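Now for a specimen:

…
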Amino acid sequence: MLKYDIRTGAKKIKTKTAVAVSGASLASAGLIMALVMPLAAKAAVSQNYSLIGDAAVVSGGNPGNAVSTDSVDFSTFGGIDYGVSSGMTFNQLVNLGTDYKISTGDCGGGSPRFQVNIDSHNVFVYIGQAPNFTGCTTGTWVPTGNLTTSSGAIFDTSQYPGGTQSSTYTQAEALLGSHTVTGIQLVTDGGWAVTGGDQAILFDNTQINDNSYTYEPAPTKDSCKNNGWKTMNDGTKSFKNQGDCVSYFATNFRNPANGQ
């Protein structure tokens, strides 16, 4: 089992099965990574993510499915852990964003946030209204836009020498641009900081560079039917027809698309 602190990213014991998460802000809650979804090789919509804590895929997304996360006081949290390309450096992270909907509580306590794992530590990317990241719009879907193009001081690089709790992307890139990214998460764990002690947030349409996460079921050869082949590609080319699409999935992605 690979254990790591969700705030520091410090790795401890490693096996091949699951991930447990603990951290000071989470009141030492022992949490297991669940529902590991396989990467659909070269698919336009990535399935390369895992759910952590009490996160779950639910209906009511923007549109379709979403991931529901909930944090109650210090006792629970939820989040999503995304696979990243091997060797990707921080300055190669050029697209980072999501749609989110706060259904209970508010943003607060440094949550919700992206966290970018680098050198066994984290860069936090806060979602909400700077500088306190509270007072968010609730009850409706809100797009963050591409956070790497934001001019706001939403990057917390304080775990690194020379870093600060309030950095712009430009400042974070200057500090850590050549450092390797080993993981990225979306986290909800600020229930302790909001009125009522419950922070429930939905996420959908998450963007990490060229990968789009819509939390729908992984496509299969049946997804090619009813003109579904027209809406998919193999990551490089579109499908020429339904048979071309079916062949791609039926051969476990060995037959590439023959379209443009």
Q: What stands out?
A: The chain has two domains: 2-213, 221-250.
